Amino acid sequence: MLPSRRLPVLAGGMARTGRLDVGALPGPLRDLRIFAGLVRERGLRHTGRVCALAVRGRWMAASDRRREAAFGISSDGAVELRELTIDSENRALGFPYVPSPGLLVDTLLGSLDEDLSRFCFVDFGSGKGRVLLVAAHHPFREVVGVEFSPELHEIASSNIRSYTSTARRCRNVRSVCADATSFPIPERPRVLYFNNPFAERVFARVLANIRAAHERAPHQSYVLYQQLAGDLEADHTDNIASLQRADFLRERQVRFPSRRARFLLGSYELRIFESVG
Fold it and tell me: How many C-beta atoms lie closer than 10 Å to residue 171's C-beta?
């Protein structure tokens, strides 16, 4: 069995990948063993893409950790849902938590060319709150995370309270412990963020809620969606295709702030959709 996209090999000192038990090996030997196993199982091209993801991911993760460490908080670390207490019919349809890189979130938000003080921001599947902290650096009216795990919700709430950075431009930041399908879509200009958090059946219900909110009160909406690119993405869904088929949305271009950002985010698929009508 190959590693999930939520636990990319060579990133974060992963101790085990599929049949390769490498937990007892020191870091460099562990990485080499994983590398050799991937080459045998998936070939050199796929292994190269995984290594590029790991190197880029480590670079961006170091920056995110430095930003948070000054306040004694951490939103880092992947978490499998089986490790959590979740009272939801959609538990089996959710994907593990892994934090989005701050650079990725800033790149998507910087592509909007909007006065964000008119908008609220909602992160569906917000986990420990990484995206909420990054979004708070922008002048949103409100930043809200929707998380159905009480444990992750509590971590996010603690992180929000402790994150007193002078770079924050939004003070109205909160985490809500709720199932994404039951969360009411704000009926005002909104930016809705998804880090490929759940399977098609759940996403279809959330997208239907977004459509209904748009029909009731056609405020401007943006849907930001990200996942790993190509065969790096183990939790495959048709969620992006669903957004492309939605007749009340149209896709717009992502603009990278620099060549460095384009390189570091090269292992991700980034999409922006805006409301029409």
Answer: 8
